[in-house]
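Predict the holo structure. Ligand: dinuclear copper ion.
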Amino acid sequence: MNAILQKCQGLTSKCVNFIQDFFVQIRAVHVDHLERKWINIALLCVGLLVAIITVDAFFHGINPPSKVETIDSAKLHLSKEFAESNLGVQVDEKGVVTVRMVAGRYSFFPKHISVPAETRLTFRWVSIDVLHGVHIPMTNMSTMIVPGYVAEITTSFPKPGEYPVLCNEYCGLGHNHMWSNISVIAKEDWHDPVNLTANKESNNE
Ligand code: CUA
């Protein structure tokens, strides 16, 4: 036990010495006044960027996808979750609204859906062929739909109306015709779609 402790102490003092030496040597290097200024500016920029990322991550909740789900894009029609009968709006017994949509050249399927306004909606997107994007103006909905992955975004629509769903990644000659629309209906006028049995289990690998 004592031998290990002594070894650890030796290692620590070696590290400390190395760091001290490193800084002594760095200080001994002649750095031009102007160069020093630019080094400081560069360090300031790095610090600023790190600060922005930290504030966004902790206070604005902007994060890279934490739950990376993969799916076989060639077998979407065979998957339980993205089978044709399961697409569109579903409400589970707790009242959570989930929207499942498939992007393919050159449309989003289902082509048209109705959702309630001022309600938390979880969108789950998959691509059937190539890389697509989805953008819904006036919401935070903007993501890539990468083949082989499930893109999940939670959003809500502030006001009733018609919202366009646009593809924002170049996906081929029909890219600029790739759009759909969503009807947002006042919360009190909106009715659950007939298909109330949300399929919670997913068979994504
Ligand atoms: Cu799909 Cu551009």
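Residues 68 and 149 are 7 Å apart (CA to CA). Residues 132, 167, 169-171, 175, 178 surround dinuclear copper ion (CB under 6 Å).
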